[in-house]
Design a protein that fits this description.
D-Maltodextrin-Binding Protein, domain 2; alpha/beta; 35% helix; globular; 17% strand; five-stranded mixed beta sheet; seven-stranded mixed beta sheet
């Protein structure tokens, strides 16, 4: 199998990230003697039972590319984050000793498929899609942003315009309610599990309108395209900090308990020493002031595990009827393809 550095960048990156629903399958890593796989795709094995893909047992399948490609979650404007994360990208280059290329992906599916195909080595996956990244792409989450020594989290907020007549969730029956995307935790899955307790059941009391992203939902509520939006609290806060919206223009009708935020993960088949070096370099990074101010006062990265820190997210996915398995992922890809056609 050729390596990424053997081909021109325009051939390795553009097709992968520009086409959200092209499925690129690497050579199968499945083996009859895999003792445990759980919900992982047949390409991967989880012999140690930690819910993430093990590194290949065959050293010839380990990857050690000269150029490392990494991507931030596509929840918000990716071009903005290329500049925000430049100090981090520069740190990784100096610390790991390799060239790092930041690539702005346009959808969660494109990001997951890029890692599955072997062209994305390191990425920050948003909360909901992390489960698909783990099970379908062999992603290994190891770090999350920390503030005050704690892993930074966020809440699901049901927001309306400050001048709207809505006072509680049950008032929104028949209303125009924005969800962000099918795989989003706070933007779709959590509302399906949590809203019914407060008298509002998605698909029964209203038809969720997929906005495409949390920021689209926020802007849609502000412009009266939607009566309410189910959004991640940190996205709304960052938009307000950048001056995109004014926080006082919204009211929060409902707020959930705290969920973990983005998972920083590497591909399971990186050469073990390279993977260990990357993990240590990420955890050693301290956010400079100008970068921290753009990321809700983030200070550093803290170690996490998918098994422990994403348990609440997996529970929501299971209860919402959308577990992180192959069937659910293929359904998401089908929806993405339909949306792209339209």
């Amino acid at each position: 199998m050729y390596e990424e550095e053997d081909l021109p960048m325009k051939f390795t990156l553009a097709p992968l990230f520009g086409l959200a629903c092209v499925v690129a399958f690497p050579l199968s890593a499945s083996a009859d003697d895999c003792s445990n796989r759980g919900q992982l795709d047949t390409l991967y094995c989880d012999a140690d039972g930690d819910l993430v893909a093990d590194a290949p047992t065959d050293p010839s399948r380990w990857r050690n590319p000269s150029t490392m490609v990494w991507a931030y979650t596509p929840v918000e404007d990716p071009a903005v984050y290329a500049d925000i994360f430049k100090p981090f990208t520069d740190h990784l280059e100096a610390c790991v000793g390799k060239r790092f290329v930041y690539y702005p992906v346009q959808s969660n599916t494109a990001q997951i498929e890029a890692m599955r195909s072997g062209r994305l080595h390191f990425a920050a996956f948003s909360t909901g899609p992390t489960g698909f990244a783990v099970n379908m792409a062999g992603a290994v989450p190891f770090a999350a942003v920390g503030v005050g020594g704690q892993v930074r989290g966020y809440t699901l907020q049901a927001i309306v315009r400050a001048d709207s007549s809505y006072q509680q969730l049950s008032d929104l029956k028949g209303a125009r309610v924005a969800h962000s995307s099918p795989s989003s935790n706070s933007g779709n899955l959590a509302p399906r599990v949590l809203f019914p307790e407060f008298g509002l059941t998605p698909d029964e009391d209203y038809t969720p309108l997929m906005s495409g992203s949390h920021d689209n939902s926020v802007l849609g509520v502000a412009s009266k395209d939607y009566d309410m939006g189910a959004v991640a609290s940190d996205v709304l806060l960052r938009m307000a900090e950048r001056g995109t919206v004014k926080i006082e223009d919204f009211r929060v009708l409902y707020e959930s308990a705290v969920f973990p935020t983005n998972a920083y993960a590497h591909a399971h088949d990186l050469e073990p020493e390279l993977a260990a070096k990357l993990r240590q370099c990420v955890l050693d990074f301290k956010f400079p002031k100008e970068m921290s101010s753009q990321l809700s006062d983030a200070e550093n990265f803290l170690p996490i595990t998918y098994q422990e820190h994403w348990k609440v997210v997996r529970d929501v996915a299971e209860k919402s009827g959308t577990p992180y398995n192959k069937a659910a992922y293929e359904e998401q890809m089908r929806r993405d393809a339909e949306k792209k056609k339209n």
